[in-house]
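STRUCTURE:
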């Protein structure tokens, strides 16, 4: 529950359930490419191929896997993948895609904070989480404890996430300027959004349009992982993001990435982080 008494999980899950089919039908997720090309990988996974390394034979977990395109991509790189998400409709789309492509991926419905009892402790060689996942969780320290418990000794966390600077920016100004409007640091109170749209191109209409989000500062994320005994092995900030957060202000790059057209060096938009659990 949030401080105002609303169940953020119920609100957020209803929104994701409402949008899962539209996301699967959108060109942005390239679901049809997965069906016809057994070598195709999601743009998110393609971006981090140089950093992912060899996944062959590893037991991997994708937290907040949504419709499973990144999960399937990691399986195509040789990992034995499990995907976890709290949205039943999203997992229905994920299971359908896995069945159609012959992928052996296990999908489990659970809230992230209940992942250990749902899956078992110490099961995974790596935990993966993608862009736009952490903002749905109110407590990054609790998340870090879950990740550490899920990993085997020697296992690693691999994440690419929206940078907290990105989530703090607002472009809704009459002069079109970008300003730091929203919290950079984690706060107890959520940001409450009412939005009948979604981040993919679609003509679908939605009925569950209120969601709760939280930002988590980069130092807060790193410190939460260090406090669990994980060892930071990589932290790279990027000037691009795999969708268009500021329409009309972005330029398209190779690999379906976008960055700010005007002076992209002004702000980081995503980051890739890796941390390892000691043997």
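SEQUENCE:
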């Amino acid at each position: 529950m949030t401080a105002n008494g609303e169940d953020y999980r119920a609100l957020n899950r209803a929104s994701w359930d409402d949008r899962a089919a539209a996301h699967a039908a959108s060109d942005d997720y390239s679901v049809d490419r997965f069906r016809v090309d057994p070598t195709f990988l999601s743009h998110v996974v393609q971006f981090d191929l140089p950093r992912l390394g060899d996944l062959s034979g590893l037991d991997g977990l994708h937290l907040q896997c949504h419709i499973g395109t990144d999960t399937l991509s990691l399986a195509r790189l040789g990992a034995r993948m499990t995907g976890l998400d709290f949205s039943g409709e999203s997992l229905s789309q994920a299971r359908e895609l896995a069945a159609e492509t012959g992928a052996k991926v296990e999908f489990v419905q659970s809230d992230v904070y209940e992942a250990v009892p749902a899956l078992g402790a110490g099961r995974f060689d790596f935990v993966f989480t993608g862009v736009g996942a952490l903002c749905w969780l109110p407590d990054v320290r609790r998340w870090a404890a879950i990740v550490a418990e899920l990993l085997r000794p020697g296992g690693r966390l691999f994440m690419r996430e929206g940078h907290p600077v990105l989530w703090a920016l607002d472009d809704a100004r009459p002069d079109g300027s970008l300003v730091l409007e929203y919290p950079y640091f984690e706060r107890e109170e959520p940001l409450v959004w009412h939005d009948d749209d979604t981040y993919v191109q679609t003509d679908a209409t939605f009925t569950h349009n209120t969601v709760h989000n939280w930002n988590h500062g980069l130092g807060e994320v790193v410190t939460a992982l260090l406090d669990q005994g994980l060892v930071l092995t990589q932290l790279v900030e990027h000037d691009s993001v795999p969708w268009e957060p500021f329409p009309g202000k972005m330029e398209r790059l190779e690999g379906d990435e976008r960055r700010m057209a005007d002076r992209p060096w002004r702000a980081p938009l995503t980051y890739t982080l890796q941390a390892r659990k000691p043997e």
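REMARK: The first strand starts at residue 59 and ends at 63.
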